[in-house]
Design a protein that fits this description.
The chain folds into two domains: 153 residues, HAD superfamily/HAD-like (Rossmann fold, 3-Layer(aba) Sandwich); 75 residues, Threonyl-tRNA Synthetase, Chain A, domain 2, CATH 3.30.980. Helix content is 37%, strand content 20%. Helix 6 links the parallel strand 9 and strand 10. The strands form two sheets. The chain has a seven-stranded mixed β-sheet, with helices on both faces. The chain is α/β, with parallel strands linked by helices and 242 residues long.
């Protein structure tokens, strides 16, 4: 079994400073419990840059990591190093210039560098400024650049010069681990690509509110932790009988 999990909003509560996010103790304990089980692989699948995901998750190296929606990978071999070509680097520089001007125009709007682009954060901004900043960012980037990948999250817009999704990342992990079943939990719009990649023998768990393709839903990280512990309980016994 592959147990693949988003981090923010799934294992960890949403916080104003992304680098201060940490999994709640119950969720971290459940992940460690699953890690010790035979025939079970655990992966984190996040929109965070890989470096940030490693820092905030603070989990053993046996956890497979997917950062930047699948652009970055840390599997059982050494870290995957993202290498942009010259044209992509020029596009990243232009994207930085355009989005930097947008961020500087609004209070409490800031830009987070990503391996192949940037995230425009508006969590601390007023609702009005957040909405206008998003509209301006979309308009300005569309006017300057073509074929950008744009993802909408909770109080964030992500722009990337490369395209990949959590669904593609999940399929890669499924093949890599030779999993015959997948459990995926996530909370954000970008997790819907992963839920869409699940099959009839898989389980999708949505954390929080919002439309979803997942076949189950819980309220938040504490409930995700309980679900993971229930999964561990079942795998400790004869799962076919339970």
């Amino acid at each position: 079994m592959l147990v693949a999990l988003d981090f923010d909003g799934t294992l960890a509560p949403e916080v104003d400073d992304p680098e201060k996010a940490r999994a709640i103790p119950e969720a971290r304990a459940a992940v460690l419990r699953l890690l010790d089980m035979p025939n079970t692989r655990v992966a984190l699948v996040s929109g965070r840059a890989l470096k940030s995901l490693i820092e905030v998750s603070d989990l053993p190296d046996s956890v497979l990591l997917v950062g930047s929606h699948g652009i970055e990978l840390r599997l059982d071999s050494p870290d995957h190093n993202l290498s942009l070509d010259t044209a992509e680097l020029k596009r990243v520089d232009l994207l930085n210039e355009v989005l930097g001007e947008v961020a500087d125009s609004f209070d409490q709007v800031w830009l987070e560098p990503k391996p192949a682009g940037f995230a425009l954060h508006t969590r601390l901004a007023t609702e009005h400024n957040s909405r206008i900043a998003h509209l301006v960012a979309l308009s300005e980037t569309a006017a300057e650049m073509q074929d950008l990948t744009v993802r909408t999250g909770k109080n964030v817009l992500e722009f990337s010069v490369r395209s990949t999704t959590k669904g593609e990342a999940l399929e890669h992990l499924r093949e890599y681990t030779a999993a015959t079943a997948v459990f995926y939990a996530g909370d954000d719009v970008t997790d819907e690509d992963a839920f869409a990649a699940l099959g009839s023998d898989d389980v999708g768990l949505k954390s929080g509110a919002g439309a979803t393709l997942a076949n189950f839903r819980v309220g938040g990280p504490i409930d995700v932790a309980r679900a993971l512990n229930l999964l561990a309980d079942l795998r400790e016994g004869d799962v076919h009988e339970q």
